[in-house]
Structure formats: structure tokens, C-alpha cells
């Protein structure tokens, strides 16, 4: 089983365990909302653009609500579990390339929104995959950072991003935690952050991610 499919299965199980009204780290979304989002991005290409494009966000939101009404919570979970769907199931390698990161992040969005949680120890090859993605995407992920960012991977590796010719903040953690940090989960990523107080505060509040 690929890591993408493993994360998909584990998140589906967690959805079932927690029910539709549990909190997530996605602001304003319950587990029901997040499940609908995941179905939308794979199965409703007409609305998926609204995930990233603001003028289309209203349509995406309406489709997301219609998916909730049509399938119900249990039905959405079964659609997620049966994936990958759409382009992710048709194009060879697409599921592994994109959904490994997508489902890991959203799995942690649910795990870390609960009262008690601890970071998982990820397999070495998954950590390596995430570090490659952090390095490759750091300029995109950190483009809205108002300060310079130096990412230090525990076990080796450094990547630079964020604004130039301004104070820098050093962020140290495993590849999985750095990935979460770079995708706007700063306050829930288990990392060490060092720098001037003002620079650190600005980075922690920045809208990081894609």
C-alpha cells in the first residue's frame, strides 16, 4: 500500500471514530465539512478550482454543501475510502505525487484538533518524500512570509524561503512537521522556532501555504 492510500484509509477510519461534528484545524470546518472538501477536490472538477481561486470560492462552497446533503457523512467517507478518484485515479503516479501530502496534512488537521494528540513517528521514506516536497515548494509555501525563513530538518538539510533582506527566523523540526508549518499549521507543528520576538510573531501569524 502506498503512503497516499495509507493516509487516506487512516483518515477515513478517524472520520468514522470521531463523527461528523468533531473540530479540525481548517478554520470553521468540522469533520463533515472536511470530508465533503476531499470528495469535491477529487470528484467535482467543475468546483475544485474554487479551493484556490477566490472568485470561484462561493461556487465551491455551495457544491460542498450539496455533497453533504446528497451523500451524508457516512456516504462521503465511503467515497473517500474508495479513492483515488478523478484525475488522481486516472493519471499514473498522480495519487502518490499529490495525495500523499494532501491526505497527511488533512489527517493531521483532524488529529491535532482533538484534545489529546502526539506527533506520529513517520517512516523514513515518507520523511524523505516530505523533505523533497518542502525543498521544492518552499518559495511557493513561504511566499507570504513577511520575514526570511531558514528551515532546518532534523537529520540533515537546510532550505531557505520567505522574504529577502529582512530578519530571518530559524525553524527546526522533522520533515513532516516542517511541511505542516509551511502549510499554515504553525501553531500545531512540533518545531523549534528561533529569532527576534517580532519576527517570530509575524511568521507565526502569516498565511503560509498554497
TrEMBL record:
Signal peptide stretch: none
InterPro entries for this protein: CHP03085, DinB/YfiT-like, Maleyloyr_isom, MDMPI_metal-binding
UniProt superkingdom: Bacteria
Record-linked Pfam families: MDMPI_N (PF11716)
GO molecular function: metal ion binding
Ranges where the Mycothiol-dependent maleylpyruvate isomerase metal-binding domain occurs: 5-48
NCBIfam families per record: maleylpyruvate isomerase family mycothiol-dependent enzyme, TIGR03085 family metal-binding protein
Protein name: Mycothiol-dependent maleylpyruvate isomerase metal-binding domain-containing protein
Organism: Streptosporangium roseum (strain ATCC 12428 / DSM 43021 / JCM 3005 / KCTC 9067 / NCIMB 10171 / NRRL 2505 / NI 9100)
